[in-house]
Amino acid sequence: MLIVALPAEIVITARALPDPVAERLLGVSRIDRDRLEDAGGLGVEQVLREAAGVILFRRSDARSGQPTSQGVTLRALGGNAASRALLVLDGVPQSDPFGGWINWPAYDPAALAEVRIVRGGGSVADGPGALAGTIHMTSVVGAEIAGRVELGSRSALYGSARAGMALGSGSLMLSGYGGLGDGFVPVEASVRGLADRASPYAFGGGRMRWAGDIAAGVALEAAVGGFDDRRERGLAFTDNRTRGLDASLRLVGRGSWGWSALVYGQRREFESSFASTDRARTTTTRTALQYDVPGRAIGWSAEVRPPVGARTELRIGTDGRRMKGRSDEFGAYVAGQPTRDRSSGGQSAHAGLFAELTREEGRFTLSGTARVDRWTITKGALRDRLISTGALTSERFPDRSGWRPTGRIAAGAALSNRVALRSAAYLGWRLPTLNELFRPFRAGTDAVAANPALAPERLRGAEVGADWRGGGASLSLTAFANRLLDPIANVTLGTGPGSFPGVGFVAVGGSYRQRRNLDRIDVAGLEASGSWRLGEWTLGGSLSLADARVRAMGAAAPLDGLRPAQTSSFGAGASVGWEREGRSAALQLRHSGRAYEDDLNRLSLPAATTIDAAASWPLSRRIALTARAENLFDARVIAGRTGDGITERATPRSLWLGLRLSR
């Protein structure tokens, strides 16, 4: 059978349905198990940064960054802390039910068999959150015992262990992991004061997953897992804590009629404290405390693949997710005590039907998809109580609902056994998060008002690509153009001092912003990735070029023609690895071009280049000595900048030494 894209190495990872044939017509890349196992305490988020076009909203990682700023996106569709790419684990969406950000410490890279990055919108079975694409994480299954422990710079410790065993008609996998450290001082030395200090962190989690046959041609997957993440932001009163619990059940049918059915539930608990310093940065005072931010989600998906011919694949299905959450917080602190108690939140849901038909005919493959979703936003409310008097003001926002159609057409041709061409055009969309809709917030002297009238974001896009494979080498090129309509951004509307609607008083030097739908963001770009294996050596590289521009009018007119916040126009990576008889060494280079902290492009984040290194040396058949270096040459990576001249850096050089056990 002829295919239109060059096949990747086949890896049996779990018991879900095979990857859709239509994915061969899209820009898909894979991170294999060896790379994930080698990551250690680096975390899934840092491994993802190695792939072309993957952007995390902040350059800080999950050990020092603010948890609510850790969204993930693809293809320069940034400018927002909520994720514009959908992250899924064994079919379950992972974005926070309240805020849309990603809890990266919830995942142990060593417990994953594969990460598959599917770029481009118009997703069929993944739901409306996949504006820029979908990042699929697949869990390890099978019988094995493995683990590692590492000691690192600044009193850091990381460990993970997993055990797989046969149980009944299937296999049970138990995994656990954890890490802690004293952290580094985020604020750069040139602007530090007595109030600045290191940012300690501690995280851990575990998961239990069983997969096996329960009847002829029917498999069951059952999983439950949880995590706990604590970190501080380098000042007193800036501690954060996130806890989560997930459970899921999936049935998979094999045979002439392939089918799957999934149900899941998710629970999140979040606490976060905020602080400010005096101008000399000698004293710290608390400015806000989110003492309870519960988020809940339940969801489902179902798919059937009827037998319609050897060269035709038909997928029909449905999926949906219902989310609710709120933020309970103290604010307007005076003399160290809160004067206001505020609660904001609501509920949202979406449910859709989809169909995808893919036909292979000779050297050509054609695919068409269609989807329609019903969305609702309900029970939105904002309550504000003056603590001293008990005076209460509350506002309830109108319920809203609507329908949103999406789809994708794609085509490709295999020119030879080595070269394939592909193209696609698509529509996509994203529902505003409950955080964006209902919660105002402050960051330092800046204040951002919520907007319960936000419209869903909509994407129109197209791409063309080519793939080549031969002689142990591969190369993939993709050119794309996207137009994001009604993108949600924090729009600057004024500066302090003064009182502003939705947030109250803003001090001198502070900015007043509101979440608003801009007219659009236009992005045109090119992605390239390749690899070459020659004996004991492996070379790899990736490149992302993207010209992203905001188009805006009215109150947001000053943003017209500017680059979206936190969005670089250039990114690149390169790696070289060596392996012989269990011994290995690798270097990984990552470059991120200049970006801007703010929507007005006044606060520049300079380009940065970092190099990581890793090595492994077997001590016995089961035990190996490992060494890792993050940011080997201690490059200056600016992760944040404020209007009053405070700069924050990402992780400095960190050295690790450890042992790895395998059987």
Automatic annotation (TrEMBL):
Transmembrane segments: none annotated. Residues 28-134 form the TonB-dependent receptor plug domain. Keywords: Cell outer membrane, Membrane, Receptor, Signal, TonB box, Transmembrane, Transmembrane beta strand, Transport. It is a multi-pass membrane protein. Residues 198-632 form the TonB-dependent receptor-like beta-barrel domain. It comes from the Bacteria. It is found in: Cell outer membrane. InterPro entries: Beta-barrel_TonB (IPR000531), Beta-barrel_TonB_sf (IPR036942), Plug_dom (IPR012910), Plug_dom_sf (IPR037066), TonB-dep_rcpt-like (IPR039426). Belongs to the TonB-dependent receptor family. PANTHER family: HEMOGLOBIN AND HEMOGLOBIN-HAPTOGLOBIN-BINDING PROTEIN 1-RELATED, TONB-DEPENDENT OUTER MEMBRANE RECEPTOR. This is TonB-dependent receptor. It comes from Sphingomonas glaciei.
